[in-house]
Write a structure and sequence with these properties.
Its main location: cytoplasm. The protein is α+β, with helices and mostly antiparallel strands.
């Protein structure tokens, strides 16, 4: 069977593999698309190990809860194209279901959790890397166990939030707080959670950018501490003004609802990863030469 552009397109949509890899797979299997999928998998596994050091900074953040347990994780790919692919999202959902039903507490344990296919999470990512042609990996994972859990997944699949409360807060109020965390991006739950080195760095910046000429020592110290407190309030969830009523702090809102916030996780895809800028035109040219 002739290898047509339509066949290549169909195989690419099925597997998310690169265009040239799809072409090679179809040529090697006389245009049989089912055999081409197998060819991609078999030939890709050998290449998967070579991709281990590549930077995967795109992908999906995902949170889920069954009422008694809540999980949140980030799974990365190398390009945005793959992270929006239906096959990739199916893998994300399968991993989410498996992790939710597991007893995994750490990333190391999460990678060993088995999916319905019989593969572990780690093996499934390696298989996806082999088939798709991009590095696929679960980068981080956190979990909360107990009652009163709320979560939020942003529509773009790049931001997820997982919150745990003590007390009985209404589901809608808890969900609105999750949306607040997604929008306002607090780094810490409370002031007690802010590391001393963060405070020291911020105070250094404040001192360097504040004119205290002629101010008495006590007044100057008060100004500096006031600016530091304002900065800490910006990055601390409980000190932030609630996005739905900025006159009320989040801590006050939660207290009014008869609850308290215990745990906060906010994952945004790629945060903290040093991305590599790719010359796309040069990459395509190199593929065509190959």
């Amino acid at each position: 069977m002739a290898v047509t552009p339509q066949l290549i397109k169909e195989l690419r949509e099925m597997t998310s593999a690169g265009m040239m890899d799809c072409k090679k797979a179809l040529e090697a299997t006389n245009g049989n698309i089912d055999d081409a999928v197998v060819w991609l998998r078999e030939n890709g596994l050998a290449k998967a190990a070579k991709k281990a050091d590549r930077v995967a900074a795109e992908g999906v953040a995902f949170a889920k809860s069954n009422g008694k347990r809540g999980i949140i994780f980030e799974i990365n790919s190398e390009t945005d194209f793959v992270s929006k692919n239906e096959k990739f999202m199916t893998l994300v959902n399968e991993i989410g279901e498996a992790l939710l039903e597991s007893n995994a507490k750490t990333l190391e344990e999460a990678l060993k959790v088995k999916l319905k296919s019989g593969e572990t999470v780690e093996q499934a990512c390696i298989s996806a890397t082999a088939t798709i042609g991009e590095k696929i990996e679960v980068r981080r994972f956190d979990v909360v166990d107990g009652n009163t859990i709320s979560f939020y997944n942003h529509a773009n699949s790049r931001i997820s939030v997982l919150l745990q409360f003590s007390g009985n807060i209404a589901e809608e109020d808890a969900y609105n707080l999750c949306m607040h965390v997604a929008a306002m991006a607090p780094k810490y739950l409370s002031k007690d959670d802010v590391p001393e080195d963060f405070k020291a760095t911020e105070m250094h910046i404040i001192k360097e950018t504040t004119d205290l000429t002629g101010k008495p020592e006590k007044v100057a110290e008060g100004i500096l501490q006031g600016k530091l407190s304002k900065k800490l309030a910006e990055v601390t969830l409980l000190e932030q003004g609630f996005v739905m009523d900025e006159k009320v702090k989040v801590s006050e809102f939660v207290k009014q609802k008869g609850a308290s916030l215990v745990t906060m996780y906010r994952f945004e895809v790629g945060e903290g990863i040093e991305k590599v800028v790719t010359d796309f035109a040069a990459e395509v040219a190199a593929q065509l030469k190959g």
